[in-house]
Amino acid sequence: MNEPSASAITPAQAWQTLHEGNARFVAGESSHPNQDANRRSSLVHEQNPFAVIFGCSDSRLAAEIIFDLGLGDAFVIRTAGQVIDDAVLGSLEYSVAVLGVPLIVVLGHDSCGAVTAAKRTVDTGEMPGGHIRNLVERITPSVLAAQRNGLTEVNDMVVEHTKQTAERLVESSSMISAAVEEGRTAVIGVSYRLAEGAADLVSGYGALSHPAVVRSPLS
């Protein structure tokens, strides 16, 4: 069966597909689509993902599983605490400019170790060693923003960090910002609850109708 190209799918349709897949996962009714030999063979020479999922590296946050996806459905990028760096931005810009993906999902989750480490640093003033320090420094602004809003629990800070990360993506990349302005791509923040398996849309920018989403970057 021929599938529509990613560019033919709107940001709203892409999110609807992810939302429906997550609902199946929560209900224990995953269909495991696009995981057979025919699908594998069809992707040898090209890929056509309909979403980018930029999430935390946590082992409990396997994007293709929680959204019930298969081979070639999602372009996945993962760092601890979904921390942005140049490699992440380059990968995201590639997905938008070359692959034409209509939706970027920033995927955070409760009980995040990286956010917990940043909160601990803010609370105690003690900075971790090695390259973990770099992660904590990049997450700390989100922790401070949460505290300014009266949020003191780690899971509330995770949601704030997810929102802040989605905003920073649009702020940091003129390529992504332009795609959002033109309606070709939306950027959304999604928070995943480990116990329930549910992924909730908490923020975003672009052509997607939802109370948490604004229609253009940073408007």
TrEMBL record:
Broadest EC class?
lyase
Show the Gene3D superfamilies listed in the entry.
Carbonic anhydrase (3.40.1050.10)
Q: Name one Pfam family in it.
A: Pro_CA
Q: Specify which residues bind Zn(2+) according to the UniProt entry for this protein.
A: C56, D58, H109, C112
Q: Which organism is the protein's source? A: Arthrobacter gengyunqii
Q: Which domain of life is it from?
A: Bacteria
Stretch forming the signal peptide: none
Q: Does the keyword Amino-acid biosynthesis apply?
A: no
Q: Which GO terms describe its molecular function?
A: carbonate dehydratase activity; zinc ion binding
CDD domains cross-referenced by the UniProt entry: beta_CA_cladeC
Q: Which cofactor does it need?
A: Zn(2+)
This chain belongs to the protein called: carbonic anhydrase
Q: What is the purpose of this protein? A: Catalyzes the reversible hydration of carbon dioxide to form bicarbonate.
The reply to whether Zinc-finger figures as a keyword in the UniProt entry is no
Which family does the entry's similarity section mention?
Answer: Belongs to the beta-class carbonic anhydrase family.
